[in-house]
C-alpha cells in the first residue's frame, strides 16, 4: 500500500500492481499465500481507483502458478473493476499452445483487458505473444530489440514482422512501420548493443507487390 500511495502522490496516470503467485515465489519471495494476496490486492486496487487512476493487476510468474488459483483470483479482481489483468511468463518457459489454452480460458473468465508478458529464454516469446493475441489478449509487453532481463522479452520488431503478415492493412494504418528501423538503431546506440545480424525484417511498404 505504501508504494501505491507514493505512486498516486507523484501524479501518475496508471499503477501496475504485481506480486508473485507461483508456489516458488510465494515461498521464496514474499512468504504470503493466495488469501493474503487477494485481500491486499483489493485494498490497493480500491485505493488507486478512489483517485480515478488506471490500474492493472498482475501475478508474477503466473504461468507457473496453479492456474485454477489464478482464475479464481483474477475473477475476484475483475469484479473490482480493474482496467486489466496481466499474466507473465517470468522465466520464459511457457509454450505457444500452453499460452493459447490459458489465455483463452482467462478470456472466458474476466471481462477486463488482458495484458501478457513473455520472456524469451526458450526462443518462444514472439510465438507466445502471437498466440496470446489469437486467444484473446489485448496487450503485449514488448521492448525495442527485445531488450530486457536475461535474454529479453518479446521484441517489438519481431512481433510486428509476425503481425504484418497476418493483417498488413491494419498494422500499416495503425503504426508508423517506416520508423521502426530508425528506433531500433537509436536504442541500440543509446544502450551500446549491436543489432543482431539476423534481426527481423518488417515490410512496411503499403503496396505488398513491392515487398515480396
SSE blueprint:
Elements: H1 2-9, E1 14-20, H2 23-28, H3 34-49, E2 54-60, H4 67-79, E3 84-89, H5 96-109, E4 113-118, H6 125-134, E5 139-140, H7 156-166, H8 168-174, H9 180-191
Parallel strand pairs: 1-2, 2-3, 3-4, 4-5
Strand order of the largest sheet: 1-2-3-4-5
Major sheet, described briefly? 5 strands, parallel
Q: How many DSSP helices? A: 9
Indicate the proportion of strand residues: 5-15%
Unreliable stretches: none
Structural Rg: 19 Å
Top keywords for this entry?
single chain; 212 residues; alpha/beta; 5-stranded parallel beta sheet; 9 helices; globular
Compact description:
The chain is an alpha/beta fold.
Mind explaining what this structure looks like?
The chain has 212 residues and is of the alpha/beta class. It has nine helices and five strands; from the N terminus they run αβααβαβαβαβααα. The chain has helices at 2-9, 23-28, 34-49, 67-79, 96-109, 125-134, 156-166, 168-174, 180-191, and strands at 14-20, 54-60, 84-89, 113-118, 139-140. A five-stranded parallel sheet has the order 1-2-3-4-5. Strand 4 (113-118), helix 6 (125-134) and strand 5 form a beta-alpha-beta unit. Helix 4 runs parallel beside helix 5 (96-109) and helix 5 packs parallel to helix 6. The chain is globular and about 50 Å long. It starts with a helix and ends in a 21-residue tail after the last helix. The model has no long low-confidence stretch (mean pLDDT 92).
Amino acid at each position: 500500500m505504501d508504494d501505491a500511495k507514493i505512486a498516486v502522490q507523484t501524479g501518475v496516470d496508471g499503477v501496475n500492481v504485481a506480486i508473485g503467485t507461483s508456489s516458488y515465489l510465494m515461498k521464496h519471495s514474499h512468504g504470503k499465500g493466495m488469501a493474503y494476496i487477494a485481500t491486499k490486492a483489493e485494498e490497493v486496487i480500491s485505493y488507486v481507483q478512489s483517485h480515478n487512476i488506471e490500474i492493472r493487476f498482475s501475478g508474477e510468474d503466473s504461468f507457473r502458478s496453479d492456474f485454477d488459483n489464478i482464475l479464481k483470483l483474477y475473477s475476484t479482481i475483475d469484479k473490482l473493476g480493474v482496467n486489466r489483468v496481466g499474466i507473465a511468463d517470468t522465466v520464459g518457459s511457457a509454450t505457444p499452445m500452453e499460452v493459447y489454452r490459458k489465455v483463452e480460458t482467462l478470456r472466458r473468465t474476466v471481462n477486463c483487458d488482458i495484458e501478457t508478458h513473455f520472456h524469451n529464454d526458450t526462443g518462444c516469446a514472439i510465438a507466445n505473444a502471437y498466440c496470446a493475441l489469437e486467444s484473446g489478449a489485448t496487450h503485449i509487453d514488448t521492448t525495442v530489440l527485445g531488450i530486457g532481463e536475461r535474454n529479453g522479452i518479446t521484441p517489438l520488431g519481431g512481433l510486428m514482422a509476425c503481425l504484418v503478415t497476418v493483417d498488413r492493412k491494419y498494422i500499416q494504418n495503425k503504426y508508423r512501420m517506416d520508423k521502426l528501423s530508425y528506433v531500433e538503431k537509436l536504442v541500440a546506440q543509446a544502450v551500446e548493443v549491436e543489432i543482431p545480424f539476423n534481426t527481423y525484417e518488417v515490410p512496411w511498404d503499403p503496396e505488398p507487390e513491392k515487398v515480396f
